[in-house]
Design brief:
- Keywords: DNA-binding, Transcription, Transcription regulation.
- It holds the Pfam family TetR_C_13.
- One of its GO terms (molecular function) is DNA binding.
- It comes from Elongatibacter sediminis.
- This protein is an all-alpha fold and 193 residues long.
- Helices cover 73% and strands 0% of the residues.
- The longest helix is centred in the last third of the chain and has 27 residues.
């Protein structure tokens, strides 16, 4: 008799993502994932493969529903200065609002996962490149409209904004207070003045 799912896969992925986000990949055990998702071991493996496969699926879900969706929303504003301002203010707001100080799942992965896992490294690098591309496009469009200073080299500015973003996310994991995080965000916004 073929195996039939008796659970919602998206809900299970969401719950597994929370386990990985709370504990990190290395510290999350199969027992933690079973408890967190409410699935039994067989259902977990049949639906998602092993721990690493499940992790990659949760990372893809997070990236699609969080980073990609947010960037699409900001690009739709067609106002690069406002998009960059909302981006950095939003990052600070999200970071402060998280009582568990979990940080960004993508940034956490870049810090935790070993460099020898090429697939994960490439996934994270692609996400960071896309953020850099968003920042670069904002700078270029703003410069073309005369809204962002022409002396800012777009690629350098974009890389700097990525570094400031990662800094906010890392500091937000419990080291930085709201004023520190906002100071970094304000510096990001000053970069484009």
């Amino acid at each position: 008799m073929p195996w039939e799912k008796s659970f919602d896969e998206e809900t299970a992925l969401e719950k597994a993502m929370q386990v990985f986000w709370d504990k990190g990949y290395e510290s999350a055990s199969i027992a933690d994932l079973i408890e967190g998702t409410g699935l039994n071991r067989g259902s977990l493996y049949n639906a998602f493969g092993g721990k690493r496969d499940l992790f990659l699926k949760t990372l893809t879900k997070y990236d699609r529903e969080t980073r990609q969706a947010w960037l699409a929303e900001l690009e739709a504003l067609d106002d690069p200065r406002q998009a960059l301002s909302r981006f950095f203010d939003g990052v600070v707001e999200q970071t402060i609002a998280d009582p568990d100080h979990k940080g960004c799942f993508l940034v956490n992965t870049s810090l935790e996962f070993p460099a020898h896992d090429e697939e994960v490294r490439q996934f994270v690098a692609k996400g960071l490149r896309e953020l850099e591309g968003f920042f670069r496009r904002c700078i270029e469009v703003g410069q073309a409209r005369g809204e962002i200073r022409a002396t800012l080299e777009p690629q350098v500015g974009a890389k700097t904004l990525v570094a400031l973003l990662v800094g906010i996310r890392v500091l937000g994991r419990g080291v930085g207070d709201e004023s520190t995080l906002q100071a970094v965000a304000d510096e990001a916004k000053r970069l484009i003045d």
